[in-house]
Amino acid sequence: MVTLAGAVLGRVYAGPLLTMLVAGAAVGSVLVSVLTRRLPSWLVAPVSVLAMLGWTAVSLRVAAVDAQLPGGFVEVAGDAAGNAIPRLLTAMIPVAATPDTVLLPVVAAWLAGLAGAEVALRAGRVLLGYLPPVLLHAGAVYVVGPNAQPAIGATVALVVTAALGLAVSSRPADGDPADGLPPAVRSGVRVRLAVASAAGTAVVVALAALLGPAVAALVDTRPVDPRRYVEPPQVETLDENPLIRISGWALNPEQELFQVATDRPDDPGSTGPTDDAVTGSAGVRIRLAVLSDYDGVTWRVGATYRNAGRILPASEPAPHTTVETVRQEITVGDLSGRLLPAVPTPREVSGARVAYDPGTGTLIRPDGLTPGLRYTVTSARESPDNNLLATANTPAGDAVARVLHVPDGAPEQLRRLAAQLAEENGAPYARAAAIEQWLAEHYRLVADAPSGHAYPNLAFFLFGPRDGGGQRGTSEQFAASFAVLGRLSGLPTRVVVGFAAPGSGPVRAADAYAWPEVLFDGLGWVAFDPLPRPDEQPRPVEEDFRPQPEDPPPSEQPEPTLEPTASPPAQAAPGGPTDSGGIPVPVLVGGTGGGLLLVVVALLITLAGLRRAQTRARLHRGDPVHRIAGAWRELTDALRLAGRPVAADLSATEVAAVANRTLAEAIRRDVVTAEAASTDGTADEERPMSTAVQLAVDDLAALINQVGFAPGTATAEQAEVAAEAATTYSATLRAARPHWRRLLWSVRPGPLRWPR
Fold this sequence. Notes:
It is a single chain. This protein is α+β, with helices and mostly antiparallel strands. Helices cover 48% and strands 12% of the residues. A five-stranded antiparallel β-sheet has the order 8-11-6-1-15, with no helix packed on it. The chain has a four-stranded antiparallel β-sheet with strand order 2-14-16-17. Strands 5-9-10-7 form a four-stranded antiparallel β-sheet. It is elongated, with a radius of gyration of 38 Å.
């Protein structure tokens, strides 16, 4: 019966290993109870537990070898013991038989066998002894849930086995035990037995009649999936939008992120060209993340990762593609986060425990990347048939609604540009190629462009003045602009972040870039390269994009000009000048001035409200990491408002020193001004407060360093301390400014538009 429970659970496992290990636990636990039945009952449990530990160690070792997990036995066993339940309920179907996914079933099977055998054999309560294996069977059915076909065969076998066990164990050994009793007593015993049997039968029949229809009605219903109650592995905040890391990597081009060694088993020794124009003739395009969700502000990963074993679920390649096997050994260097770089689409990973998202074909390491981590990944690299692209269609409907969604608020200029590019290109591939060519011909690729891909950032990148920072950006802006313009043109698009890597060797920060992809029927996701060519000068956007006015005149013919008629001369009336019905000049001037004043006041109130909302969002919304970062931005904005912007290359400690020096100088000037105007001694009361504020700034710098170098360790209390420090510093620095500058402090629009 315990083995049958293992067979039920094994339906969601890859291969028969789990069922074999559970069967071994079942046989071992019952055999230990049989062999020790003559020993005192208090000795059986310790002996059986020792045997269970031995079989569990063997099971973990076998599973670790089968999964090719790195590390020693103690490390693997400790990890399995600490993560057995969550990884079993978050693992990808089919579940890989790894130490953490076999530990709980093996231990549960052994304990169920021990309890059932002791109750049935030692106490002689066979029916009660069935309770542990039946509960184990029910638990296995519940864990499997809707992820496999109904376990009808195993359940029927369980019932038949239980019935046979009852039939065998109920046979009297020495005839009827009531034969030796006196006739009167014997008759009474038999009557009581008959009555008890009839009552029991009646109860069973009544329960079957009452519960049978309800149980039968549940056969066709979808069972509850317990996996819905357990949160799968998540990416870190750093990995939610890796697109923003492009600009940081571009500023540190020599930073070595990882080492790669590439082998193509389909063509040993081949270093021939690939279809990736950016990677070069001997390179490969390594993917880090796929971003499918866009809300008008941020592109996000939006993937659901499930713990996976060494062999990943294989999906059918697109019909009109060729598949090449690529095997890479990757050694992590300075790359941080949880996302694992790999050539798409990975099929086998060894050397690291991974979680996998089949929808995007991307990997994460739930424990995070560490320098020196080495793993091997084998991928099935798909290449579309380029001859079919010109006539290929793009899918539509609910299945691709996610990659067709255009959030509200798209600038009108973006919509007009998308319409202009799609106007003469009806075929999907022609539209995508037109967007690709437009971006490559009109914009400049630079490394020092600020990060950002919200609607305002893309509008400035596409249409901003060339001499004012517009029409230039990193691959972040090129890929994001292509994806948004493509969706506005009806193309299903997404953004991919990865690396243009050599065949073998170091992959540096300069190799990181983003590219867009478009989904075509029968060809899958096809990558495009909107980056400009190095030897071409961009053409000004104004030469090719001249948006028409929103309300063009209905006719190009000039309207006839009407000659004004002469007005009759005004005549004086006896009581004074005649009232012509016009607005008196004083009223007109006063009304105009009052209207302008109301507009100015409304504008100032709006700016003050936006500034306050920005401060509240920074300091009191989001997780502690975002709130501490928001407090730091409040401090640096205060310095810019005071006329002391900090350089981007300064560390947090250096910025704190600049902030403290700026505050001290401002208070010193304020004290001198106050002493010149009054001698009441109030100026001296500001100095202790200045020291306290400076200490708070130092604490804020320490917190921002903690967030940067120890992600995930910040607490809500530390976020409150950071918010208080930023608020106090900004208020103190503002109070030390001249009166007219204090009035302008809260309404200056700079913090609303300054790049981050």
